[in-house]
Amino acid sequence: MPARSSLVTSSSTGSGTSSRLSGSLRAVLATNAMVHANTAFSVTLAAMDETVVLTVRDRSLRFPTRRPTQVMATRGRGLDIVDFVALEWGINDDAAGSKAVWASFAIRAATEN
Q1: How many folded domains does the chain comprise?
Q2: In a domain, 27, yes or no
Q3: Does residue 80 contact residue 87 with C-beta atoms inside 8 Å?
Q4: Is residue 69 part of a domain?
Q5: Which residue range is the domain that position 49 belongs to?
Q6: pTM higher than 0.85 for the full model?
Q7: Tally of CA atoms within 13 A in the half-sphere of 75 that contains its CB
Q8: Which is it for strands 88-93 and 99-106: parallel, antiparallel or unpaired?
Q9: 3-state helix/strand/coil string of the chain
Q10: pLDDT of res. 88
């Protein structure tokens, strides 16, 4: 997982695309933790240089998997969305019995008028 330097909120990443992406990824990864891990979870958003890293940590060691999805299915596209939107993403586990699903994306600077 990329090193993180400081915690930020989605509003401090600037307006526009980066804030919408952080909110969308946060919703997808948090929903996955609620539905599939069925444990308490935490969400961390951190900035490093020109990148934001979103991490959702839960107490399940069951790793998420991408599966083929039917066209009309209403579920099952979470990791496909993360893979499409994120620069990078991955899954880490630790000896304490938890896992972290993380995704990174570029910070888009707000343009001045």
Answers
A1: 1
A2: yes
A3: no
A4: no
A5: 6-62+75-106
A6: no
A7: 4
A8: antiparallel
A9: CCCCCEECCHHHHCCCHHHHHHHHHHHHHHHHHHHHHCCCEEEEEEEECCEEEEEEEECCCCCCCCCCCCCCCCCCCHHHHHHHHCCEEEEEECCCCCEEEEEEEECCCCCCC
A10: 92
